[in-house]
Every structure is written in structure tokens, then in C-alpha cells.
Request: fold
Amino acid sequence: MKIDSSLPLEYSTEENRLKIFGFWIFLGAEIALFATLFTVYFVLENRTGSGPTGAEIFELTPVLLETFILLTSSFTIGLGVHAMRLGNKKAMMSFYIITLILGLAFLSIEIFEFFTYVSHGATITTSAFLSALMTLLGTHGAHVTFGLFWGIAILIQVAKRGLNDKTANKAFIFSLYWHFLDVVWIFIFSFVYLKGLIS
Reply:
């Protein structure tokens, strides 16, 4: 397989470029999924029945903390990709590990948040609003959870095989996935939590 050394390692073969292009198509399907979940949420957000509203259960502090953590993880994975392009395996792995730790911290806060909602009687069966909310948040959380396992698998491969065109391609595609999750969270933060708190 011909390697083009003038390109970054993750783009250095035709196969790699096709895999990245294919992953962008996959992200298009993911955008459609989350767009559907957001649409359902916006339709049902005022159908609270006898259950609590968003303003009654949302708390700004944990949501701000989650947002800060996830945005920081987006920055650290960017540093990881930069280190990878410089051929610095140790730095790349370190930044990816930091990213995964931040992802775990985010997930821990989100799980705690779910338990808090349930303790206040806000469950997925309480109202249409809470059903839509928890489906949206749960789907995003499931994606983050999958990302943690995927990231660990990539780190194991890089540790064993080093930085080459294949491992760099996988690590870069993972970074696209992680950035996508951050973008989705910004929409959740802005149009679910902030909107819910001020309405």
C-alpha cells in the first residue's frame, strides 16, 4: 500500500482517506439521530403532566461543570492529535488518557444527576417531557460510554503497535467522534438546560 509522506499519518493512504470519509458519512447518520431526539424533546417539553418541569429539576452548577469538563476533553484530544502528527507517542497517549478520564468524570456527574432526578420523582415514566429528556440525555451518555471503551481499545493498540498509518487513522477517527459528542452536548446545554432554566 502506497504511503504519501507529504500528508499527516492518518491521511497517508487511500484506504485511510476513504475510512475518514466513510466516518463523516456515519456522523451524518448520527446527526439525523440526535436531530430526531431534539425534535421529539421540543415537541414534548411542555407536556409535564403532574410531574416536575425543567425549571424545577435542572441545576446550573452540575451542568456547567459537565460542560467545562467535556469542552476541556475536546481540547485535550486535539492536543493528542497534534502530538500524534508530531510522532510523539507518549504525549499522544497521555492526552488521550486525560481525555478519557475527563469523559469518565462527565459520565459520573450525569449518572449522579439521573439519580437526583429519580429521587425527586422525575422518572422516564413520569411525563412525556421527562421521557423525551431522559431518552436524549441517555442516548448521549451511551455514546460517551461507548467512546470510553473505544478510546481504551485505541490506546492499547497504540501501546502495542506504535504510531503507524493504521493506528493513527483509528485515533484520528476517534477524535472526530469525540468532538461530535462535544458539539451535541453544547446543543443540549443551550437548548435543553439553559432554555429550561429560564422558561
The chain is about 80% helix and 0% strand.
